[in-house]
User: What shape does this take?
Amino acid sequence: MKHRYLLLLPLTLIISLSACQSRPPVPEPRYTPNVALNASETLEVMPYRSACHSATPMQCLLVKPVGADDDKLFGIGYNDIIGFTPTVGTAYTIKVRQEIDQNTGKPTGLWQLDEILTQNIR
Assistant: This one.
């Protein structure tokens, strides 16, 4: 019987002390990125799509800098170039600017379309 009270004593103390919190918890402030646009780049958009490596299944545009070899291909999310609605089977040359979070110096993953220079149906 005595051992049972010894086990209940720490539990009672923990419950009692947790009720004595003097201030309610304060949530962390919401992070707001400070977005800026990088210098304009000219990219070739391939006429076909590829599966992206991401948390959710999606299609990526395959792009590369103008004049670069195919080993420089990289993916941009299908809807991640704001102002650009590509058509499957059409190759494009576009001028875009990448969004950068100035607080972290890292890309946000979004791009802004400046201009469609060429489009070729393949």
Remarks:
- The radius of gyration is 27 Å.
- The mean pLDDT is 87.
- The chain has one domain: 35-121.
